[in-house]
Amino acid sequence: MGQPGRFDSSVLRVTDADATLRFAMTPSDDETSPSETSASLSLDDLGWSAELAAHVTEAEAALRPARIASVYSAFVDVWLADTTGPRMASLRGRALRDAPEGGVAVGDWALVASASEGTDDVVVERILPRRTAFVRQAAGERSEPQAIAANVDRVLVVTSVEGDFNARRLERYLVAIAGSGAEAVIVLAKADLLAEADDVVRDAEKLAPVILTSARTGLGVEQLRAQIPRGTTAAMVGSSGVGKSALVNALLGRSAQHEGAVREHDKRGRHTTTKRSLFAVPGGGLLVDTPGMRELKPWQAGAADDDVEGAFADIADLAASCRFGDCRHAAEPGCAIRTAVADGRLDAERVASWEKLERERGERKARQDVFAQVQEKRRNARAGAVALRKRLLTKRGR
What we know:
- There is one protein chain.
- The chain is an alpha/beta fold.
- The chain has 3 domains: 1-130, CATH 2.40.50.140; 133-289, 3-Layer(aba) Sandwich (Rossmann fold); 302-385, Ribonucleotide Reductase Protein R1, domain 1 (Orthogonal Bundle).
- 29% of the residues lie in helices and 19% in strands.
- The protein is built from 11 helices and 13 strands.
- The chain has helices at residues 43-46, 50-53, 93-97, 167-178, 198-205, 221-225, 244-252, 307-311, 313-319, 336-342, 348-395; strands at 64-72, 75-80, 87-91, 109-114, 122-127, 133-137, 145-150, 154-160, 183-189, 210-212, 233-238, 277-280, 286-289.
- The strands form 3 sheets. A 6-stranded mixed beta sheet has the order 10-9-8-11-13-12, with helices on both faces.
- The longest helix is centred in the last third of the chain and has 48 residues, at 348-395.
- The chain is flat, with a radius of gyration of 23 Å.
């Protein structure tokens, strides 16, 4: 057994007697920090695995694994094993510099060390490689990735049954999820606002597995909880005001996130969540809650060849049956896609959405290639600067 507070890769366990919550920042009235639980969480509860342990080198054996719970630029909240909630930690410059694609994200696994002897302060030394990552192109015109959540097993796409349901928007989420490595589940919220939701459920079920919910009545909450078993992590995403915060509170059994009143004219709630946070679901796994997204442009450099196909598997399968391998699904004879639309097996709007996202994928690939080239030049410049500094120090006899 390793020393208390140290990581022992042979037993995959961390001991940390101090379960005190420490925050160097005070959240505003519109947000709350990840709250403490009534019981401490083990490494298994936090989602640690042998695969992650394999990334820890012998030189890092004294460092402790921690799960990123919130991100504040150069500071993060981290959740250590055998504690009841996250604590604030600073990020070493190299942890920021060498972070995975899209920057440090909620759900990332990190290795932390004591910031100074005799204190409980910790500092993040390194971010470990990710198993999965939900990444989008940064909002606005910037052609760079932004990591929303890392190491998630399931992404819960929340949309309201009334006023917000949009199949084309859901397809965009499903493309991003298909490239992330996680599973997708559509969560239809606010079922109490609609007398009959069968049509909406049927439309959503054509895209992905569906759970119909109402935080007010409790409908579907236990079914939703079953999607987040112990040792797994789910991320909840969707537009502003669709009821994510209410569902988070229902799953946690307490008021952890502020809820906005529903507006009468469009049945949408007010935007209340302002940062991504990691919560422990009682009796279950971990849940990443995210602010509402005004726009979603998928960004998955490593999965650029199959993310759209993953979200449109039915159309991709049909396309493989076209007479010509390079069929553009326009006027070519023997086009299986056009035949399926004509006889009602495929929705024309869904096909148009697929074609649009395919075009965007090509444009996105070009932007990603440019971004990768810029990043490579920066890495080479840093490596050259480090090598030069070492040569100068050696010359001076240091």
